[in-house]
Amino acid sequence: MVGDRLSEVFDLVEVRGLLSGGLAVRGPWVSRAGIDHPLKFFAMLRGRARLVTDGVHGMIELEPGDVAVLNNRSWLEVEGGTGDGPRREVTPAADFPAADFIRADGGTDVLVGGHVDLNPTGRALLLQALPPVAHVRASAAAAGNLRGTLHRLFDEVTGDRMGSAFAIRQYGQLLVLEVLRAYVGQTELPPGWLRALTDERLRPALGLMHAEPGKRWGLEDLARAAAMSRTSFAERFRATAGVPPLTYLNRWRMLLAQRALRDGDARVGSLAFDLGYASESAFSTAFKREVGESPLRYRRRVRDEDSGARLEHTRRWSAAAGPAAPPTAAPSG
């Protein structure tokens, strides 16, 4: 059930993880940078390092295989390496010098970083679910799959093989999923949807809301499913999810509505009925209150943005590929 609910959320947020830089360096080193994405991640493939960022007290020690996800931070500093001599400042290579990474020996620190691309729904959900820094330790029992996904993603980035762009997108999504799985398994979660999905007592009630979001669920129905009194259920739900049960239900309906408007051509009136609203106007009012704009305006905007993003992606791909190779040339991957 937890896995099913998490899959539903991932379908809504369109998670993608993208590697954007890395370094392979010997000796004492330090790297400093501003952060221009809400969710950044760093993976220590080899060696050890210490990470500092705004809003977090003290250093975070990164061991081999550790992953750190920075949530809405503005800057970071990472230092590592051993030996004599001054600590030199290094800048992660954006173009991934594959040979440097592949040849790196046991005395070389290897660190890769990237960002998580999300739609607005995903940003709202994941930024709320994670702390300022989510540190996933390689020693955690649930981190084995995460390490495997990281190495496969890295292999695709540095391998220059045919179909690598598709593989990178898939492994990026799996990377974020494995980070959440490992993180859930090793720490106490803050109140929010992710913590609610893992709560055994609330699971039956959440299952009802997710399975039939258009039904007019009342507090009594949901409390009965959880085998709790109305008062106990309401208090536990709010403490776990961060919002009352019916607020959670309304937000889940709005997430489903955003996906339907973004990806389909359903009429607003039909969508309102499917999601349990008495009229199109009641749905539109609720949607505008939650999302900040009317359903039809939202549909036009996100489709225009998606078209622009696709054109930009095609332009970058064409620029990176360069001139077409002659018919007799070997494929470049």
TrEMBL record:
* Record has Transcription as a keyword: yes
- Source domain of life is Bacteria
Against PROSITE patterns, the record matches this protein to: HTH_ARAC_FAMILY_1, HTH_ARAC_FAMILY_2
Q: Where is the composition biased (Basic and acidic residues)?
A: 302-315
Name the InterPro entries on file: AraC_lig (IPR032783), AraC_XylS_family_regulators (IPR050204), Homeodomain-like_sf (IPR009057), HTH_AraC (IPR018060), HTH_AraC-typ_CS (IPR018062), Tscrpt_reg_AraC-type_HTH (IPR020449)
Residue span of region Disordered: 302-333
Fetch the Pfam families from UniProt: Cupin_6, HTH_18
Instruction: Enumerate the UniProt keywords alphabetically.
Output: DNA-binding, Transcription, Transcription regulation
For the HTH araC/xylS-type domain, which residue ranges apply? 203-301
Biased composition regions of type Pro residues, renumbered to the chain: 324-333
What span is annotated as the signal peptide, if there is one? Answer: none
Would I find Lyase among this entry's keywords? no
Q: What is this protein called?
A: AraC family transcriptional regulator
This chain's source organism reads: Pseudonocardia humida
